[in-house]
Amino acid sequence: DRCGYPEVIYAPGKSLEALNEGFQALLSANQNCLATRCSESQGESLKKNFPGAIYDTVARTVRIQLRDQRAGRVAIVTAGTSDRPVALEALETLRWMNVEAELLMDVGVAGPQRFLGVKHKLTDCDAVVVVAGMEGALPSVVAGWLSCPVIAVPTSVGYGAAFGGVAALLGMLNSCASNVAVVNIDAGFKAAYLAGMIAQRPTKQQS
Amino acid sequence: DRCGYPEVIYAPGKSLEALNEGFQALLSANQNCLATRCSESQGESLKKNFPGAIYDTVARTVRIQLRDQRAGRVAIVTAGTSDRPVALEALETLRWMNVEAELLMDVGVAGPQRFLGVKHKLTDCDAVVVVAGMEGALPSVVAGWLSCPVIAVPTSVGYGAAFGGVAALLGMLNSCASNVAVVNIDAGFKAAYLAGMIAQRPTKQQS
Amino acid sequence: DRCGYPEVIYAPGKSLEALNEGFQALLSANQNCLATRCSESQGESLKKNFPGAIYDTVARTVRIQLRDQRAGRVAIVTAGTSDRPVALEALETLRWMNVEAELLMDVGVAGPQRFLGVKHKLTDCDAVVVVAGMEGALPSVVAGWLSCPVIAVPTSVGYGAAFGGVAALLGMLNSCASNVAVVNIDAGFKAAYLAGMIAQRPTKQQS
Amino acid sequence: DRCGYPEVIYAPGKSLEALNEGFQALLSANQNCLATRCSESQGESLKKNFPGAIYDTVARTVRIQLRDQRAGRVAIVTAGTSDRPVALEALETLRWMNVEAELLMDVGVAGPQRFLGVKHKLTDCDAVVVVAGMEGALPSVVAGWLSCPVIAVPTSVGYGAAFGGVAALLGMLNSCASNVAVVNIDAGFKAAYLAGMIAQRPTKQQS
Amino acid sequence: DRCGYPEVIYAPGKSLEALNEGFQALLSANQNCLATRCSESQGESLKKNFPGAIYDTVARTVRIQLRDQRAGRVAIVTAGTSDRPVALEALETLRWMNVEAELLMDVGVAGPQRFLGVKHKLTDCDAVVVVAGMEGALPSVVAGWLSCPVIAVPTSVGYGAAFGGVAALLGMLNSCASNVAVVNIDAGFKAAYLAGMIAQRPTKQQS
Amino acid sequence: DRCGYPEVIYAPGKSLEALNEGFQALLSANQNCLATRCSESQGESLKKNFPGAIYDTVARTVRIQLRDQRAGRVAIVTAGTSDRPVALEALETLRWMNVEAELLMDVGVAGPQRFLGVKHKLTDCDAVVVVAGMEGALPSVVAGWLSCPVIAVPTSVGYGAAFGGVAALLGMLNSCASNVAVVNIDAGFKAAYLAGMIAQRPTKQQS
Amino acid sequence: DRCGYPEVIYAPGKSLEALNEGFQALLSANQNCLATRCSESQGESLKKNFPGAIYDTVARTVRIQLRDQRAGRVAIVTAGTSDRPVALEALETLRWMNVEAELLMDVGVAGPQRFLGVKHKLTDCDAVVVVAGMEGALPSVVAGWLSCPVIAVPTSVGYGAAFGGVAALLGMLNSCASNVAVVNIDAGFKAAYLAGMIAQRPTKQQS
Amino acid sequence: DRCGYPEVIYAPGKSLEALNEGFQALLSANQNCLATRCSESQGESLKKNFPGAIYDTVARTVRIQLRDQRAGRVAIVTAGTSDRPVALEALETLRWMNVEAELLMDVGVAGPQRFLGVKHKLTDCDAVVVVAGMEGALPSVVAGWLSCPVIAVPTSVGYGAAFGGVAALLGMLNSCASNVAVVNIDAGFKAAYLAGMIAQRPTKQQS
Ligand SMILES: Nc1ncnc2c1ncn2[C@@H]1O[C@H](COP(=O)(O)O)[C@@H](O)[C@H]1O
Ligand SMILES: Nc1ncnc2c1ncn2[C@@H]1O[C@H](COP(=O)(O)O)[C@@H](O)[C@H]1O
Ligand SMILES: Nc1ncnc2c1ncn2[C@@H]1O[C@H](COP(=O)(O)O)[C@@H](O)[C@H]1O
Ligand SMILES: Nc1ncnc2c1ncn2[C@@H]1O[C@H](COP(=O)(O)O)[C@@H](O)[C@H]1O
Ligand SMILES: [Mg+2]
Ligand SMILES: [Mg+2]
Ligand SMILES: [Mg+2]
Ligand SMILES: [Mg+2]
Ligand SMILES: [Mg+2]
Ligand SMILES: [Mg+2]
Ligand SMILES: [Mg+2]
Ligand SMILES: [Mg+2]
User: Is the ipTM of this complex over 0.85?
Assistant: First the structure.
């Protein structure tokens, strides 16, 4: 494969046959499998056909883990329950990459005491993924306390002038913290993939 | 006058004659005077013609204060040097309203320790004005610690996807704090006017 | 709690269990309860489990009122029947805050005689919430007659170039009245929360 | 000519020669002349070459009036000094069409008493042109009292979320009054042309 | 009533009771009735309760015509089958106003020969309503041949960069014809109301 | 070179040295030269250094023509004087490509008789470039009469809701004529390049 | 017919009767038939009534081919499975035009080796249609290797900041390749129609 | 300092005194200095007052380098001359961070052979910064060949539908490559800061 990580399958629009063949091919190549954005019927089909497959209905992912030796460490931070699907997609992606990952939920901007309580869990991470909807202020707040890269994911959560994630996206792009980069709205997979790549570099380079 | 406060003069497009007549009329009615968005020639003209006039070149305001018995207390919070013109317009407006006002600059989102150092100055305010450009996250952060109304002013400061204040405006409208309302981009006058009105209510009602 | 008012529960995405536990916790702390944006099944569940709970199906709120000593006074003004869900969310919020609240519907811009007939009900309010969709001109019209803060709520009511509330939002941000601040589209809760905070300040300060 | 009115010259980008030839051709055809959006040098050139030419530096128009028998009646209503250039372009256009026209300035939304004082001047008009920037609420307010067509012109006056006239444009398109149609931002000429056409119909049809 | 025409009922969000009472009130005042944007159940209810009511399922209107003496003449021009619901709403509105109205469909921009064939039907109109989606070029093309006011209605018909009527709206606002004014997207009622007002002026003024 | 045509030099940001070297290199390769978007100093420099260079100050192009045997035929159609710079950039590009090109100006939408007078000049073209600002309706009108590809160029000409060419761009993308494709706003070069490529295909294929 | 190709039927909003009559009329005129954007019931109806009709359920087209002598050659290039419906609409359109057409799928930007493998199939085309969603970079990449016109179709495929095809549309309009023109989002028909017109020119001109 | 790197000074709006004091403070703390977005007078002042200061007039940066032991390796890739100021700001930032950095210009999308020639210089980088305006396709093309993080910077270079960098920004956010994250338009500093942080991690962790 091209990039050091096996191909991931983006499920929307794929037939069940195509999905199952995709997983079969990855297994034949002795690789971890990941499918994202699975519909219920897609998820159930993969789970039925591949005994070891883990189907997370909230993350909408199916994953098969051949190896599980962890390297590097990434935290995923989010403000509330509504951003969970995106945060869990990120978590499943990091597990599939064999990166040690922890999910810290309920870390809000307007209730900063909640953040100060978990800050110590972030300071030894290689990279942090921050998932936030509405005004998207969380990455700025978190990044100010950290010296590692922060990958921000705006979510389509919110109403009115949230405009389906645009408010959060603009907030994150304009973050006054220098260590923040941004991915597409709801792109939990992409943020995790990049964070995982960063976390594994020291390991990779020594080998 | 209509609303309990004398009329304010919005200077753009007004001739020097019209401006001077406006101030003369307010003085004849024994009222404090305020002109906002003054050009340099407008400001100099008013200063020359009215000895007691205070011309703030950064705020772009001219003010004459007949009475100065303060009532109520409002703080103006801002993140950095670039938002100063808008913050000073708010400050001058509050002074003109005879409201006690304090300006707290350099209170940024990404360096939260700076905020924690000034928090005690905000807890006894009747209302707080928060001025912020770029991602506009400061009102959310500040409002989470306070139990009084927060009036947020997005500024046109920033570049690229700041879109002349749109990013900050959207961020503030989507604030996850419940005690935040928003005014137009760069509308330091409006935020201060509303905050001042809130601050003076207890006084007014007792009289 | 952080701000002098108990926490409000934003229902979307919450399980019935989580909602019921939330209400139970608030009652244990001897506080009024409020849940907003409840789905029908959420509303029915809370109503069944908490005998004193008031479920307003148009406002989409569930409320439990432990104390009902009113203080301060806020009016909610709206133009027509379509803005009712947002106006009722505001009304329920003010009741939950123990603020005296009155709803004045059918006050339109294009039929100004209707407004002149109710004007006297607004002049002694501590704050006024104005709810309007389409062109969002009502706050400007109302605020011109008043000397108290006006909190404007744009609604997503309208079609075509109303753009789901954007036209009303922009109209309100550009109001030529100085005593108008704005909250997010359809954010009846936020406007009422801020107006209620303003209305109770004189009381709070005396205590 | 095609439409019953002589051709109007839109000056931007035209050479002085082309402008002067245009006016000469209209005069040879024994018609009133009008050039809009003239730069200073364009205006001065036409004024020097055509003795009867009226150059209005605020409206940025040059006009030659061969006949002046008025028919029909149109009022132009505006809120303040900043919308004057657009309102005057409309006024000059109506004069050129030989329509009786009156300009009513300082009729604001937030100070409705000012409007009630001039209402009687509008009730016998054939059409009313309303010019307004910022939130563009004035047409809705005015149209509610009238039974003739209202042509609304949004102006690019304002700052921040006025977005160069977009807020006013959207407000006017969403007017809850049924007798309001809209033209382009700053298009004083177009609104006046249409209002003048309406005002002259009864006359035209009798001839 | 305020404007010389009876009130029209905008049906969305109204209960069947409210609708029926509205019609009853208009009949008691001896006036023609019109309800727009009726759902199927609303339309069927009115039709059942009021024997003379005409329910047009494509226009989504219900109308009762007490008097039918026609005055004035308006044509409605449209490009194709998809704009029919908006065009028929305009047609029903004009009938309700007792204005003579004709609908000319299938008049497209890209097949101009179709337009040239019907041009003679437009030249004696008092006003013309042009309904068009997609690029909204039809009003410009039509208006170039006419000397009466053209009221343009953009429709939400189209796909992709039609953006739900925005492309048509912008095209119409920027029409290089001077005799075109615009109403909201899909606002067939508003365009017809204004055109009908124009068409009836000569009659009204003679009485 | 890569595509059958020599490289074109896009002048903005290039030093005079770089521009002159670019032309020298093209001449050494025995190719026609073209630079677009030249500033005055860039244009004058090239003209002085290359005796045969043709500098068109309105098109802002500099061109050197080594060969001039024409093949294929393209017409450029435009509505008025303001679109001339873009139309001339297209004309210069076609000359540089050795394609026979004719510019037809003053062909407007609202005065369709002007178009019918020149239609016969378009029917034998291989491709037609249509340049239009404001509402951008001209390509739809023109394309309806033709059986060859039409390449539409929106221009930034216009004011208000023209939004710097966006209205014209959207109009053209939504053209109801099937034989219209679109290039970037003001991209006269690109439209001409594509039209020229089409015009020369028959020739190229026979060789 | 007007343009050398028979009229195509755009199915949305057409009754089954109207559709069948349309096909019957085309057959009577001895022409190939094409209907685009057919719903399932529309497609099934045409297929049942016209024995030779080919209904492609993914392309959503119905086609009847009277003649099949191919002339010219067009390739359709696309990046993945999600853009298939648009690509197949283009393919069916080219077949209906009697143009030789080939569909090359799975040619992505980020895996350029896939493109290099199929490049030789493109170099002898008369025109190439490139269909791409998300960032819309494929036309730029493909066009750099080709010397024929490239017609780019943005698709509404993608999520978040893809904004229903806007990101792809903007990317294609700004392509740094000179030989790219663009059609509306999802307009596979239009791109193919234009490409087919280009491909058949040499043939047409020789006859 | 907060993040392991000394504070960077954002020059706009800062007085010469403030800038000089800022540099003096950094030097006293024995740290490398960097000021970005310097005006000419700001740059000259710093250069005059600090002998070792390097003022890059294209990057608009001033830098003082106390230590120069390089660690890690980052490449900056760009398509053309117009993106140079942003690329050079990134280069200066990496030098200030003591990261080995190389600038590869003229690597365009439409001329892919240019990219293939430099690919070998990218494969051993720790991170790659890609700077691109107009359609912003370059990061997708580059990232497809690499297994390290790619930080994409959209630039405001382009015209028409480039919309000051919005087209490039959207293209990059929708990149179909998984290893791409994005920063604000023209934010060369931010991209470099993040890339530098990634590049130095292995070193930092070993220490
Ligand atoms: N900086 C400002 N921003 C918004 N509104 C203002 C400002 N300054 C004054 N105003 C309002 O403008 C009104 C005066 O406008 P004018 O009659 O044009 O002078 C005042 O009564 C204020 O309501
Ligand atoms: N006016 C223009 N608009 C868009 N692209 C252009 C223009 N002029 C030249 N180009 C393109 O820009 C390329 C040269 O860019 P550069 O290498 O920066 O000089 C040419 O090969 C053309 O593809
Ligand atoms: N999928 C399509 N997208 C855009 N235009 C189309 C499409 N299919 C057909 N057309 C055009 O629509 C015209 C027919 O429209 P209609 O008269 O409504 O059937 C045809 O002549 C084509 O120009
Ligand atoms: N060119 C730039 N773009 C964005 N942020 C910057 C830039 N230069 C410096 N910064 C950030 O701005 C902060 C300093 O802002 P200030 O306190 O206003 O000088 C630095 O710590 C950086 O995080
Ligand atoms: Mg959030
Ligand atoms: Mg800020
Ligand atoms: Mg309303
Ligand atoms: Mg105004
Ligand atoms: Mg249409
Ligand atoms: Mg034009
Ligand atoms: Mg794609
Ligand atoms: Mg570029």
Answer: yes
